[in-house]
Amino acid sequence: MKIRGAIALVTGANRGLGRAFLRHLREAGCAKVYAGVRQLESLGAGIENAVQLDITDPEQVAAAAARCQDVDLLINNAGVAKFTPLLGSPTVDNARAEMETNYFGTLEMCRAFAPILKQNGGGALVNVLSVVSWFNAPMQGSYCASKSAEWSLTKAVRFELRNQGTLVAGVHAGYIDTEMVAALTDPKTSPDDIVNRVLAGIEHGDEEILADERSETLRAELLGNYAPFESAMQQTWDEYQRRITR
């Protein structure tokens, strides 16, 4: 799809990657960009079309969908990372928080906006994932598990929405130079570079967007060509749909 003229909604839009999405989408010629945030005051002054949106709150998700009926580009950027191991944490609270946001919150957004994208011609749904969707770094084991679940969710949503003409894209990247990983000394990619790759991928129709060098390297190292298998799964879904609608 074309970015110019699109009407977009970005979740987690108050800082870091989300803030970069807002700026670049406007610069690329979007007709309107909604900024979804948990706290409206976190956006500061001068941001139009702010939407109070905690994606873990189904009522707020429903309210956002009711307000943003013109959206044809959804950027599911909101996420949390607690950077804790699965067994070494004193409780499972961090794991629950990551799963509630990264998996269930993203799922709520996909469910709420799929019919809106359909009514507006298909458009695109973009889930910001991570390279740890593909493997587990045990120091942040619960975050990795939530992102792996979100990657699987993204593929399932893609199967279900392909026939309505919606591009469902998963974005993979390593560390991005944002507040979320400010304490880490590992190499990081700027949010601007990530967003530029994502927007180019959307316009190109890419379902998997490798947004930095780290994701390109790991994709080649860890994963083979699973496109034929995914195609077979799409055929299985299409046949299932035909059976239940007879």
From TrEMBL:
<keyword id="KW-0560">Oxidoreductase</keyword>
<protein>
    <submittedName>
        <fullName>Short-chain dehydrogenase</fullName>
    </submittedName>
</protein>
<dbReference type="InterPro" id="IPR002347">
    <property type="entry name" value="SDR_fam"/>
</dbReference>
<dbReference type="Pfam" id="PF00106">
    <property type="entry name" value="adh_short"/>
</dbReference>
<dbReference type="InterPro" id="IPR036291">
    <property type="entry name" value="NAD(P)-bd_dom_sf"/>
</dbReference>
<dbReference type="GO" id="GO:0016491">
    <property type="term" value="F:oxidoreductase activity"/>
</dbReference>
<comment type="similarity">
    <text>Belongs to the short-chain dehydrogenases/reductases (SDR) family.</text>
</comment>
